[in-house]
Design brief:
Layout: H1 4-18, E1 25-32, H2 36-49, E2 52-59, H3 61-69, E3 76-79, H4 84-89, E4 98-103, E5 105-110, H5 121-130, E6 134-137, H6 144-155, H7 159-162, E7 166-169, H8 172-180, E8 186-190, H9 191-194, E9 200-205, E10 214-218, H10 227-237, H11 240-248, E11 252-253, E12 268-279, H12 281-285, H13 291-294, E13 299-308, E14 311-315, H14 322-328, E15 333-338, E16 341-345, H15 349-355, E17 365-367, H16 373-376, E18 386-389, H17 391-397, E19 418-420, E20 430-432, E21 439-443, E22 452-458, E23 462-466, H18 474-478, H19 490-507, E24 510-512, H20 517-521
This protein binds zinc ion.
Zinc ion binds at residues 372, 374-375, 469, 515.
């Protein structure tokens, strides 16, 4: 020990001499125990290569999620899906969601014991039925590994049968300790937690078909003391360097996002599937058309991605938030937009964007035809994009007591960067998004105060108008029926329809009524595109 002191003294002096000693800014992080070993291994490298320090707190999977949803201020929360309550809470920046790694539930035996075969669901089942006892983390304490494994036992239909042999522990480490002390024959917890414990050896992980992997997703908190610092940490935790650490501790790093497509030389339009609305007969009548006239009463809900050499524009964001779609999988998610209109969604918007190589953070501009629920469900994911909107619609969206909108779909946009497109538009109430006439947003108010349509002038496909809810069913247009009585302003809608018809005639643009079954189901869908 005596020899240590002078060394420490020299080190401190050297730091002072170099002028590098200063109060380091601290980033607080909270994460479940399943990723603890990895985070602890990664922090020194991060602190070494950045000006920041990290203060990490670890808890159970459900406990961590609850803390974040309750607003306990951590700069970087890491949580496990599904987490709709966290997204709804407004305490995380939704668009910052960054998958880090996945972890599997593994089996452990006491060091030196024979390792059983767990390579197939049948072998796992036989093992659990044959052992005298086994330990795993208590799900009632919020342990995600415990919640996941209990579900595995239930899905295999053996939960009641093996219940007497279950030894529930407080957390993964305690479950492993019971194995090491020979209190139980085998133990189960997240594979990454097995590897760090003494006296036990990992056998392997359960087959994915009976034990879905648990993902860990990092966010930047909306209350981050220094959002840029929090971003730097999230980027580090999802870097290739971090990936090798995840592998070392028995986790599977999240795949890097698909390579971005080369920027296109001309504008491209992708049609995305954001669901379908089943409309009751009373719902059809509201548009002053009959079931016989419309033939098909279902209304598709498309979303559109425009890729332009100078940026991207997302037009409309679907009818059910991605988090709810993920939670319902493999079944489709259901949502009643109103008493006569029932949404069914089976694909997330973000997975469709990811398949094209885009993350929400890559979307330059977001715009909506109007603020109704079936067009705004995923707006919160695009809080980092620039929102192109008319102030009259924005005000309508945040007005208290407005029944036809769902503010929790877009509450994060209240703080987002936005452009008042009415200020900069021409006398024809058009806003030229990329300043070259290829992508224009045109006011067509009435359905809502700031309802608008998108007009594309594409090199090969020509002019296409994506018409929002100017009409819902084509017979409204062909028979020139009066707009629905529940429009925000019926007279204004009628005037917008007349103005748009004039425009279509003049420009020879093709109109796509966004909810028209025939039109939308007939379009080529992403990854195909119109250019
Ligand atoms: Zn609609």
């Amino acid at each position: 020990m005596k020899k240590m002191f002078p060394l420490v003294g020299i080190a401190v002096l050297a730091l002072f001499a170099g002028g590098t000693v200063r109060a380091q800014e601290e980033i607080s992080l909270v994460a479940p125990g399943g990723i603890q070993a990895a985070i602890e291994a990664l922090i020194p490298g991060f602190e070494h290569t950045s000006p920041y320090k990290v203060k990490a707190t670890f808890g159970s999977g459900l406990g961590t999620k609850k803390q974040v949803a309750d607003g306990v201020p951590f700069d970087v929360p890491i949580i496990q899906p599904p987490y709709p309550e966290v997204l709804d809470s407004g305490h995380v920046v939704v668009s910052s969601a960054t998958p880090l790694a996945r972890v599997a539930v593994g089996v452990a035996v006491r060091t030196g014991q024979k390792k059983p075969d767990i390579s197939t669901p049948a072998k796992v089942r036989a093992l659990l039925l044959s052992v005298k006892s086994f330990s795993y983390p208590d799900p009632s304490g919020g342990a995600a590994a415990g919640v996941s494994f209990t579900k595995t036992l239930q899905d295999m239909g053996i939960y009641e049968q093996v219940k007497p042999k279950i030894h529930l522990s407080r957390g993964g480490a305690a479950a492993m300790e019971a194995v090491a002390k020979n209190e139980v024959e085998i133990g189960l917890t997240f594979y990454s937690e097995i590897l760090t414990e003494k006296g036990v050896e990992a056998v392997g992980v359960l087959p994915e078909s009976i034990s879905p992997r648990t993902s860990l997703v990092a966010f930047v908190s909306t209350h981050a003391k220094n959002p840029e610092a929090a971003n730097v940490l999230v980027r580090y935790l999802s870097s290739p360097e971090a990936a090798s650490t995840y592998r070392k501790v028995g986790m599977e790093p999240a795949p890097p996002p698909a390579a971005k497509p080369a920027p296109s030389k001309t504008a491209r339009l992708y049609v995305l599937d954001c669901g379908m609305l089943n409309i009751d007969p009373e719902g059809v009548a509201r548009y002053h058309v009959t079931q016989k006239e419309v033939v098909e009463s279902r209304m598709p809900v498309p979303c559109f991605l425009v890729v332009h050499p100078n940026g991207t524009l997302l037009w409309d964001t679907g009818t059910i938030p991605d988090a709810d779609v993920e939670r319902a999988a493999p079944r489709p998610a259901l949502y009643d937009v109103n008493p006569v209109s029932h949404a069914v969604v089976s694909k997330t918007l973000k997975s469709q964007l990811a398949a094209l190589g885009y993350a929400p953070a890559d979307i330059t501009y977001v715009a909506i035809s109007h603020a109704h629920k079936d067009h705004t469900a995923n707006l919160n994911q695009f809080a980092a994009s620039t929102w192109l909107v008319r102030p009259i619609e924005r005000e309508f969206m945040f007005r208290p007591g407005n029944e036809r909108v769902e503010p929790k779909f877009y509450n994060q946009l209240e703080r987002a960067k936005w452009i008042d497109i009415s200020k900069d538009e021409s006398k024809d109430a058009e806003y030229d998004v990329f300043r070259d006439g290829t992508v224009v947003i045109k006011a067509a108010p009435g359905h809502t105060p700031g309802h608008e349509v998108l007009v594309l002038n594409l090199a090969k496909s020509g002019r296409i108008m994506v018409a929002g809810d100017l009409y819902h069913y084509p017979p409204e247009r062909t028979f020139a029926r009066r707009p629905p009585d529940n429009e925000f302003n019926v007279e204004q809608s009628a005037a917008s329809r007349a103005m748009i018809e004039e425009y279509l005639k003049k420009t020879k643009a093709t109109i796509w009524i966004q909810h028209d079954y025939r039109t939308i189901t007939g379009l080529k869908k992403a990854p195909a595109f119109y250019e």
